[in-house]
Amino acid sequence: MYLKLLKKGITYGQMTLKLPGGKVHHFGDHGPHITWVIHNERTINKIAKNWEFELGETYIAGEWDVEDGSLYDLLSILRYNFQILKLPFLFKQFSTLGKIFQQWNHLTASRENVAHHYDLDRELFSHFLDKSQIYSCAYFNDDDNLEQAQVEKCHHIARKLLLEPGQSVLDIGCGWGSLALFLAQHFDVNVTGLTLSKEQYEVACQRASDLQLIGKVNFKLEDYREHDSTYDRIVSIGMFEHVGKDNFSTYFDKVDSSLNEQGVALIHTIARTGQPRKTNPWIEKYIFPGGYLPSLSEMSASVEETRLEMTDIEILSGHYERTLAAWRKSFLEHRDKFAAIKDEKFCRVWEFYLTSSEATFRHTRLTVFQMQLAKQRGIVPLKRDYMYQKTK
Question: Does this model's pTM top 0.85?
Answer without folding.
Answer: yes
